[in-house]
Amino acid sequence: MQNLIIMESAAKAKTVKKYLGKGYDVLSCKGHIRDLPKSSFGVDIQHDFTPEYVDMPKKEDVISELKKSAKKYNNIYLATDPDREGEAIAWHLAKLLKLPLNDKNRVTFNEITKSCVENEIANPRQIDIDLFNAQQARRILDRIVGYKLSPFLWKKVRKGLSAGRVQSVAVRIVVDRENEIKAFVPQEYWTIDTKLSTKSSAKKFAAKFHGKDGKKMEIKDSDTAQKILSDIHGKDFTVANVKKGTRKRNPAPPFITSTLQQEASRKLGYQTARTMKIAQQLYDGINIKDIGETGLITYMRTDSLRISDEARNLAGEYINRVYGNEYLPEKPYVYKTKSNAQDAHEAIRPTDISITPAMAKDSLTAEQFKVYKLIWERFIASQMANAVLNTVSVDIAVENYTFRASGFTVKFQGFMVLYEEGKDYKDDEEKATELPPLEKGDVLKLHEIVPNQHFTEPPPRYTEATLIKVLEEKGIGRPSTYSPTITTIIDRGYIERKGKTLKPTVVADVITELMQKHFENIVDLAFTANMEDSLDLVETGKQYWVDILDKFYHDFDDTLKKAEKNMEGEKMKIPEEETDEVCDKCGKPMVIKTGRFGKFYACTGFPDCKNTFDAKEKSDKTDDLNVNEEEGSETCDKCSKPMTIKRGRFGKFWACTGYPDCKSTKPLTGHTDGLCPKCGGKIYAKKSKKGKTYYSCENFKTCEFWIWDEPQKDKCPKCQSTIFAKKGKSPKTYCAKENCGYEKLTEIDK
After folding, report:
1. In terms of CB atoms within 10 Å, which of 192, 296, 492, 651 comes out highest?
2. Fold match, 140-184+469-566 / 188-250+387-455
3. CA angle, 286 as apex, 284 and 287 as ends, to 5°?
4. Which residues are CB-contacts of 179 (< 8 A; sequence separation ≥ 6)?
5. Where would I find the H helices in 383-520?
6. CATH of the domain spanning 3-127
7. Above pLDDT 70, what percent of the chain?
8. What stretch of H or E contains 450?
9. How many CB atoms lie within 10 A of CB 474?
10. Are the beta carbons of 672 and 691 closer than 8 angstroms?
11. Which H or E element spans position 744?
12. Averaged over 683-706, what is the pLDDT?
């Protein structure tokens, strides 16, 4: 082999290898290979913030293989992802393999297609040191904040807490919204809704109260609503004005990282991490029937709306061929990228428009198909003509009051024939109502008039989609950081999911209060956004990365020292949450506390009563295994005494009440109808560490029988032992008893 290409993803490496053929070998480094040490600070502040990079412990085998393999090749190409992190990985690979940094050995693939791969290999470049320094500066900034601030939180709040530069801002945004909701005072208002029709048509249409004396008027109370009803009682409703027009609706631009995450959340209900994982698979390459291994989409971490002329022209040809010339805009759309965008890559689009979702469906998983369909349709629709709507607005007079009816019909579908962007919140702005023909002076027939009381509602909690939208609008983070930021603040217990919405925990409230009081810059949105802009300047070579770190560190260090002095001897307490739960040992109320491992129930009788249990156990789903958790529902097989539920290091279990004389225990999850084919003991359903159900003998310590497959009610026709159901391409039932050999293809009941 003459040439070696090193990539991040093993799946992507397989696709590229197919394109290049003989003379090239492709290996994967499987992501980052070196980083700052976990056990020490790893940054020499006194010597220009020099970082101490070490090999990542879990990558020892990968590093060893790369070093060994690199000696065999004349040319080595570093083809890690086309972003800051990818450039940093390429830099570390060059250092690891002792490759000169001025060699032209860096290639980047915006899309994994044959033409793109061949073109990049033919035109390699040097490692972009400015791009690397931007990532290095970000990593050191995050290390400074995390390593210096976390111990402060341990002392002043609780051990195990951690702080992050971007994560702290995201938490603050969610906390601020929750505080808005708590402080919100509902305001009463009323609407008056009618059902009307013309004298020539029995078709009813809706009209709402609009105002008085030609001006818009709000109805704030019942008395005002009743006065209006009294004034217009028995009066004629007459058409005072009919306004007709047309309105154009523009297509949404192609996806960037943030909008893909938002739309997948709205339309598919996917969390950001799931969306990015699927998009990565589509980018890396998938074996498509009759086509072969190919990358289906361009690089999915981007903030640019730019697309190539070739892709735009191919989209136009497809639209003209499938939908007709009238579905093409007069001029091809060129979407403007935001001023603070890096604009390093194209927008997210299909690499080959001819591979339609329908063509790819049989080669994709269900979730891959849904995401690819979303990207493909969004891109094609972004190049289609505007939709045209016929609009009508009718003012209806009764006495000196005005009611208004409005609606629209679609005159020309345009891009709407293929795709419409989802919405974060429902609105009544454009309900597709069609009004009957109405002319000025028409007297209408009143069928129904109803006053309705309403109250204003607080702003909604953020969802993942709306939080990402705010982060993007405020310039907090960059495309590659949105998903890990949200994942981190949830994993650390600062934010929790309530359905699709995000709610701060009491820990987040306490930490945000502390940060706003003593570390205002860290959680200041404008400061964090300006820091992102500074990193962008480093990337373009307009600012020296050490200067940014120097200014930040000295200000931060002064703030930290001042905070330690101001909070000397002070410790913030995480409030307890009251519950309706009663301690099953002493009968006192229980509260929810928050520890380093999350929430747990604790008895208020502490220290006399130390009863606790994990808050998650409250919602454990055991009904499907027919488990009754009441004391006495299970009896001990050894001494026949009642059994009770206890909790150990591996979770809850049944324990004999005769302890310590009888030490018998049983799994909590309850036994099935099956019997062990080895010893005849009961078979219990259990959960593995990954949450997967398996089936084990009650005498497992001596018998050692366990199985993934589910016991069946029917017995083996050969030996009358328990038979098991195996699900797969050829489902069957079979007997697990030694030397029986019974098995039969069957339809397994779902």
Report:
1. 296
2. no
3. 145
4. none
5. 464-474, 482-491, 506-518
6. 3.40.50.140
7. 91
8. strand 443-455
9. 15
10. no
11. strand 743-745
12. 77
Q: In this structure, are residues 33 and 14 in contact, taking their beta carbons and an 8 Å threshold?
A: no
Say what the pLDDT of residue 12 is. 81
Output the CA torsion sign for 367, 372, 373, 377.
positive
Question: Can you name the CATH fold of 276-382?
Answer: Topoisomerase I; domain 4 (1.10.290)
- Count of residues in the chain: 750
Burial-class residue 245 by CB neighbours within 10 Å (0-12, 13-18, 19+): exposed
**For residues 87-109, b (16+ Cβ closer than 10 Å) or e, as one string?**
bbbbbbbbebbebeeebebbbbb
pLDDT tens digits, residue range 145-165?
988 898 899 888 888 888 888
Where does residue 458 rank: exposed (0-12), middle (13-18), buried (19+ CB within 10 A)? middle
Tokens 């994990």 locate to: 614
Please identify which of the residues 53, 299, 333, 462 carries the catalytic annotation: 299
In 89-218, the DSSP E strands lie at 188-197, 205-212, 215-216
Which residue in the block uniquely carries the two structure tokens 């002392």?
155
The CATH class given to the 140-184+469-566 domain equals mainly alpha
Instruction: Say which CATH topology domain 188-250+387-455 has.
Output: Topoisomerase I; domain 3 (2.70.20)
Nearby residues of 187 by Cβ (< 8 Å), 6 or more positions away: 220, 455, 456
Distance CA 701, CA 711 (A): 20
Q: Rounded distance, CA 480 to CA 545, Å?
A: 20
632 neighbors 641 (Cβ within 8 angstroms):
no
**Long-range contacts, stretch 154-159, CB < 8 angstroms, 24+ apart:** 155/571, 156/514, 156/567, 156/570, 156/571, 156/572, 157/507, 157/510, 157/511, 157/514, 157/571, 157/572, 157/574, 158/507, 158/574, 158/594, 158/595, 158/596, 159/596
For 671, the 3-state DSSP assignment is strand
Which strands form 706-707's sheet, in the order they lie side by side?
Answer: 671-675, 682-687, 693-697, 706-707
Domain ranges of the chain: 3-127, 140-184+469-566, 188-250+387-455, 276-382, 670-750
SS3 of 308, please?
A: coil
Residue by residue, what is the 3-state secondary structure of 56-93?
CHHHHHHHHHHHHHHCCCCEEEECCCCCHHHHHHHHHH
Q: Are 502 and 463 in contact (CB under 8 A)?
A: yes
* Active-site annotation holds for 299: yes
Which H or E run includes 502? strand 501-504
Tell me, yes or no, if the pTM score tops 0.90: no
Per-residue burial over 431-444, b = 16 or more CB atoms within 10 Å of its CB, e = otherwise: eeeebbebeeebeb
Which tokens is 216 given?
């818009």
- Phi then psi for residue 501, to 5 deg, are -95, 165
What phi and psi, each to the nearest 5 degrees, are found at residue 254? -60, 165
Q: What string of H, E and C letters represents the secondary structure of 324-384?
A: CHHHCCCCCCCCCCCCCCCCCCCCECECCCCCCHHHHHHHCCHHHHHHHHHHHHHHHHHCC
Render pLDDT for 46-64 as a digit per residue (tens, 0 to 9). 999 999 999 998 899 999 9
Cα(190)–Cα(209) distance, integer angstroms:
10
Q: Are strands 3-7 and 24-28 parallel, antiparallel or unpaired?
A: parallel
Token pair of 555 as six digits: 């200000």
3-state SS class at 19: helix
Match 């007069």 to its residue by tokens. Answer: 330
Q: What is the pLDDT of residues 601-653, one digit of tens each?
A: 888 888 888 888 776 555 443 333 333 334 445 677 788 777 777 766 455 67
Helix (H) or strand (E) holding 623: none
